[in-house]
């Protein structure tokens, strides 16, 4: 990076985006809103330094209270630590304010993808594409689990793809390091993808994410949500109506009040996976990779297990015949991220203390880039290349692809995800390209 660009880097300009004002570095041009959520607004932009399209998220009022500040700190720390091709890449972090006293805004720059899985779910995918997308989900999740990070918020709008069939997991504001013996809040995952142990307040381990992946894959196969509960009680009812009431040994793991409620519900025999996922829902069997509907159905039957102690693990899923055709040790066994803050989830601070911590993170990133003369994430990682050379002008009307119009449960405050921001494309996704 030459000195002229370094000078440009510290110059900012302001632009109104919806009800918010973005004040960004001049290197970022052609901003267009592409998504919004409880934690911020996302715009696509063209980065003249990296000569590529990017996504810029402005965190929404990160210092309005301790909860927002802690989530902002957690997201920033985790994004700086994680480095895997199936997890969205952090390209830059900046603030237009020049001192801690003025510090009010945080902007996070990430890779721009083409669409989220909400759009892919409506496509007819062959076994190669379905299997490959699932493989990439599992690789990204395994990378997080290796660092003790349980995502807990996996859903179609939090998983993004490129037209070349590459996939990445995004948004970590609610990710937290795994813990044992602690009461964990049940209001985390968007309801439809919430595992039974979360619904029932049992606490959970890493394979809570496997249930969510199973629900997502089931939705890709069926073209509709598998368990469309209207509230947390109805969500449990939807699960047992289809999978059957779990046996007594599972019910004995519940606390007394929850067990009493569950035992007083009507008992359901459930349906076989052959009936839930008949062959007609799947694409034709693959001659090339010998992938079959029976294999996909078998994997779903191992993921969608109510009792988490009997549910398949990520490692086991990666070895399943429907998935292991893509197995690459460099992707599956990538070095785990090193979380520098060992008390990331246990920290409790005042808003001013959180503000000071986040300011240091932003400052350290800026100093790192000054010393190294490059921006992390350059050159673009595999699968992050953009289709068009420059973003299209923003449209004033909402489209079917616009993620900001895809919220499934806007009226329920307990369901509002603090990371429910997707990076949608400035173009339609179109057909997914062949897998590698």
UniProtKB/TrEMBL annotation:
It is found in: Cytoplasm. GO terms for biological process: rhythmic process. Residues 28-323 form the Protein kinase domain. Residues 388-407 have a biased composition (Low complexity). GO terms for molecular function: ATP binding; MAP kinase activity; protein serine kinase activity. It is an enzyme of class 2 (transferase). It holds the Pfam family Pkinase. Residues 374-423 are annotated as: Disordered. Its cofactor is Mg(2+). Its EC number is 2.7.11.24. SUPFAM superfamilies: Protein kinase-like (PK-like) (SSF56112). InterPro entries: Kinase-like_dom_sf (IPR011009), MAP_kinase_CS (IPR003527), MAPK (IPR050117), MAPK_JNK (IPR008351), Prot_kinase_dom (IPR000719), Ser/Thr_kinase_AS (IPR008271). Its main location: cytoplasm. Keywords: ATP-binding, Biological rhythms, Kinase, Magnesium, Nucleotide-binding, Phosphoprotein, Serine/threonine-protein kinase, Transferase. It catalyses: L-seryl-[protein] + ATP = O-phospho-L-seryl-[protein] + ADP + H(+); L-threonyl-[protein] + ATP = O-phospho-L-threonyl-[protein] + ADP + H(+). GO terms for cellular component: cytoplasm. Residues 408-423 have a biased composition (Polar residues). Responds to activation by environmental stress and pro-inflammatory cytokines by phosphorylating a number of transcription factors, and thus regulates transcriptional activity. PANTHER family: MITOGEN-ACTIVATED PROTEIN KINASE (PTHR24055). Belongs to the protein kinase superfamily. CMGC Ser/Thr protein kinase family. MAP kinase subfamily. This is Stress-activated protein kinase JNK. It comes from Salvelinus namaycush (Lake trout). The lineage of its organism: Eukaryota, Metazoa, Chordata, Craniata, Vertebrata.
């Amino acid at each position: 990076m030459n000195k002229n660009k370094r000078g440009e880097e510290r110059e900012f300009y302001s632009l109104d985006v919806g009800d918010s004002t973005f004040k960004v570095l001049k290197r970022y041009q052609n901003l267009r809103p592409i998504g919004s959520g409880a934690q911020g607004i996302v715009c696509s932009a063209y980065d003249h330094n990296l000569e590529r399209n990017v996504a810029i998220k402005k965190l929404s009022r990160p210092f309005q209270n301790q909860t927002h500040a802690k989530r902002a700190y957690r997201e920033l720390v985790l994004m700086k630590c994680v480095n895997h091709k199936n997890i969205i890449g952090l390209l830059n972090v900046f603030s237009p304010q020049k001192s801690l006293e003025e510090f009010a805004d945080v902007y996070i720059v990430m890779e721009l993808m083409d669409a989220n899985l909400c759009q892919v779910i409506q496509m007819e995918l062959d076994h190669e594409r379905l299997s490959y997308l699932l493989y990439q989900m599992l690789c990204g999740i395994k990378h997080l689990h290796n660092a003790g990070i349980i995502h807990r918020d996996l859903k179609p709008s939090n998983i993004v793809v490129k037209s070349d069939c590459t996939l990445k997991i995004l948004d970590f504001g609610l990710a937290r390091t795994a813990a044992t013996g602690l009461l964990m809040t049940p209001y985390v995952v968007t309801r439809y993808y919430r595992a039974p142990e979360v619904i029932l307040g049992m606490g959970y381990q890493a394979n809570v994410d496997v249930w969510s992946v199973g629900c997502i894959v089931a939705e890709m196969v069926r073209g509709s949500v598998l368990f469309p509960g209207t509230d947390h009680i109805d969500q449990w009812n939807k699960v047992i109506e289809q999978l059957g009431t779990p046996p007594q040994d599972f019910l004995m793991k519940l606390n007394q009040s929850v067990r009493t409620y569950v035992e007083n519900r009507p008992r359901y025999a459930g349906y076989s996976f052959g009936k839930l996922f008949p062959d007609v829902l799947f694409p034709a069997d693959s001659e090339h990779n010998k992938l079959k509907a029976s294999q996909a159905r078998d994997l779903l039957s191992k993921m969608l297990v109510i009792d988490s102690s009997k549910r398949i693990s990520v490692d086991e899923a990666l070895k399943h015949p429907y998935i292991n055709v893509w197995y690459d040790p460099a992707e599956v066994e990538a070095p785990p991220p090193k979380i520098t803050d060992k008390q990331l989830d246990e920290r409790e601070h005042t808003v001013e203390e959180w503000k000071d911590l986040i300011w240091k993170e932003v400052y350290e990133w800026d100093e790192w880039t000054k010393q190294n003369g490059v921006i992390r994430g350059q050159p673009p990682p595999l699968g992050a290349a953009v289709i068009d050379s420059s973003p299209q002008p923003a449209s004033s009307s909402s489209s079917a692809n616009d993620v900001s119009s895809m919220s499934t449960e806007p009226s329920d405050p307990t369901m509002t995800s603090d990371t429910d921001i997707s990076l949608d494309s400035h173009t339609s996704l179109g057909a997914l390209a062949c897998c590698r």
